[in-house]
Amino acid sequence: MLDITQLYASCLGGVILILFLYRVSKLFYQPNSASFRRGRQISPSLARAFIRKLSFFFLKHIVYPRLFRRRSRLWVLLQTIYWAGTLTCNFIFTHSLGIIGTRAGNIAIANLVPLLLAGRLNLAADLLGIPIRSYLQFHGTFGTMTMLQAALHSAIAIRERGWDPQEPVQFYGVLAASAISLSVVLLLIRKWIYELFLKSHYWIAVLILISLWRHAYLQRAFARLYLIIGSSVFGLSTLLHWVLLFYRNITSARFGSRACVRRKHSGAAELVIPVNRPFVARAGMTIYIWMPGVSALSFLQSHPFTITWWETDDEGRAKSLSLLIQKRNGFTRRLLDHNATEFLAWIDGPYNESLNLGQYQRVLMVASGNGIVAQIPYIRELLNLSPDVERTIFVAWELDDAAQLDWVYPWMDKLLAKDKGNYILRFGLYMPGEVTNNSPPQPWNSQHQRIWKLHGRINPWEVVSQDFWKGKGIGLVTVSAHDNILSDIRKVVQSEMEDIVDFVELPFQPAGDRQVRKLQKSPPSNNV
C-alpha cells in the first residue's frame, strides 16, 4: 500500500505526465482551422452547448478576473489546492515529530523533481505545452515548497538526533540545505547579477541533486526513486537541448551564423540572423542568441528575443530571422555601441507553443512601446490564412516615442502590402505626447485609410469597441503592453464579454513603466 507521501508524489508526477502526453498528442493531431472553428461555433447537441456555456463561465469568472495584481482566481485556486494538499500530507495521521520530519524530507524531494525538468526553462514549458509565464510561476511555487519542507525536515532532524555534521547522513543533508539557501540568496539579488544567477542556479541544482542522493542513499530511503526519476529526466532533457542546439547551428559547411546588425534611429537595431537549418517559424516564437564577440564575457551569456520577422525559402521555412533590439543596459548596450556590424551567432530555440489563429474572425491587438514587435508576427500569420474566411484585424498601438514608428516601418509596409482585396487590417496609432485627446482621428500615410493617427493615450473602453463585440465569430484579444494598459484591457474584456473571447498575454511584454516623450513628426514611409 502506498505511503501518503508516495501518493502525494504520484499525484505530482501524474499531473506532469498528463501534460506531457497531451503535448505529444498535439504533435500528431492538428485540427485544421475550419474543423476547429466548427467545433467551437456550432452546437448540434446539448452537450456541446453546455461545454460552450461552461467555457464562457470559466473564462469570465475564474481565468480573467485578478485577485492579487496579476494573479488570476484560477491561479489562487490551484495554489490553494496545492498548499492545502501538501500541508495535509505533512500532518495527517502522524503521531510523532520524527514522522513529520521524515514526511517533510520526502515531500521536499518530491517537489524538487519538477524543478529538474530541463536546464532551459523554456524547453521545460514547451515539453509540457504550457506558457513560459505559467511555468515560471509554478517553478517558483515548487521551489518555495522545497525550501520550506527542507527547512522543516532539517529543524526536526537536528532536534531529534542532535547536531553532528561530521556524520555522513547529516553532512550531505547540511550540504543540500546550504545549497538551497544559497539559491534563495542569489534569487533575492538576481536583479544585479542576472547572468551569474542563471549559471549558478543550474549548477546549484546539480549540487542539490547529488547531495540529496547521497543523503537518501545512506538511509535507504524510498525517496531515492524520486531522485532517480528526476536525474533521469534532467539528463535526458539536457541531452535533448544540446542535440537540438548543435543540430540548429552546425552543418557540414557552417559553424554558427554571421549575424548582421542594422542600426536604426534612437537606440535600436535590427539583428538579422541567417538560419543554417531552416524551420517553420510561427508567431510568438522566442530564440536565445549566443554572440561571443560582443564583449569579453559574452561567451558565457545567451539572451532571449522575440522573432519579429523572417524571410522564407521555397518551402515556406524561415531562412533568416529578424530581431528588433532596443538599447538598454548590459548586452544590448554593448552590442549597439560596438563598431562591428557582423558577429558570430548561435541560435537556441525556437521556443513557445504557437496559437491556432485560424479559429478567429475578429481580432483586436493592443500594444504599447516596443510591444508592437510581439504583435507583428501574429498580424502576418493572420494575413497568410485563407481569404475565404471573413475576418477583421484592428491593431491599437500606443507609442512611447516617435522613433518606434521608424523601427517598424518596413514591416508595417509589408503587412499592408499583404492585405489585398478585403482590406481587413487597420492600425490605430496613439500619440500621447503630441496633442490633446480632443483632437479628431486622422487617416495617415496609407491608401484605403488603413492607418489612423489618434492623439492621446489608449482608452481601453473605446479600443474594445462595440464593433468588436458585435462582430461575427470567435473573438481574440492579444496584448503586449505596459501593465496598466494590460490590466485595463483585461478588465474591459472580462466585464463586457457575453460569449467566448480568448484573451492572450503575449510572451513578450514591454519592461518597466511607460515614459512618453514629446512626439515629433516622423518621416513618411512608402505608401501602401
UniProtKB/TrEMBL annotation:
<protein>
    <recommendedName>
        <fullName>FAD-binding FR-type domain-containing protein</fullName>
    </recommendedName>
</protein>
<feature type="transmembrane region" description="Helical">
    <location>
        <begin position="196"/>
        <end position="213"/>
    </location>
</feature>
<dbReference type="GO" id="GO:0005886">
    <property type="term" value="C:plasma membrane"/>
</dbReference>
<dbReference type="Pfam" id="PF08022">
    <property type="entry name" value="FAD_binding_8"/>
</dbReference>
<dbReference type="GO" id="GO:0006826">
    <property type="term" value="P:iron ion transport"/>
</dbReference>
<dbReference type="InterPro" id="IPR017927">
    <property type="entry name" value="FAD-bd_FR_type"/>
</dbReference>
<dbReference type="InterPro" id="IPR051410">
    <property type="entry name" value="Ferric/Cupric_Reductase"/>
</dbReference>
<feature type="transmembrane region" description="Helical">
    <location>
        <begin position="170"/>
        <end position="189"/>
    </location>
</feature>
<keyword id="KW-0812">Transmembrane</keyword>
<feature type="transmembrane region" description="Helical">
    <location>
        <begin position="135"/>
        <end position="158"/>
    </location>
</feature>
<dbReference type="GO" id="GO:0015677">
    <property type="term" value="P:copper ion import"/>
</dbReference>
<keyword id="KW-1133">Transmembrane helix</keyword>
<feature type="transmembrane region" description="Helical">
    <location>
        <begin position="225"/>
        <end position="247"/>
    </location>
</feature>
<keyword id="KW-0813">Transport</keyword>
<dbReference type="GO" id="GO:0006879">
    <property type="term" value="P:intracellular iron ion homeostasis"/>
</dbReference>
<dbReference type="Pfam" id="PF01794">
    <property type="entry name" value="Ferric_reduct"/>
</dbReference>
<dbReference type="GO" id="GO:0000293">
    <property type="term" value="F:ferric-chelate reductase activity"/>
</dbReference>
<keyword id="KW-0406">Ion transport</keyword>
<dbReference type="InterPro" id="IPR013112">
    <property type="entry name" value="FAD-bd_8"/>
</dbReference>
<feature type="transmembrane region" description="Helical">
    <location>
        <begin position="6"/>
        <end position="24"/>
    </location>
</feature>
<keyword id="KW-0472">Membrane</keyword>
<dbReference type="InterPro" id="IPR039261">
    <property type="entry name" value="FNR_nucleotide-bd"/>
</dbReference>
<dbReference type="InterPro" id="IPR013130">
    <property type="entry name" value="Fe3_Rdtase_TM_dom"/>
</dbReference>
<feature type="transmembrane region" description="Helical">
    <location>
        <begin position="74"/>
        <end position="93"/>
    </location>
</feature>
<feature type="domain" description="FAD-binding FR-type">
    <location>
        <begin position="248"/>
        <end position="357"/>
    </location>
</feature>
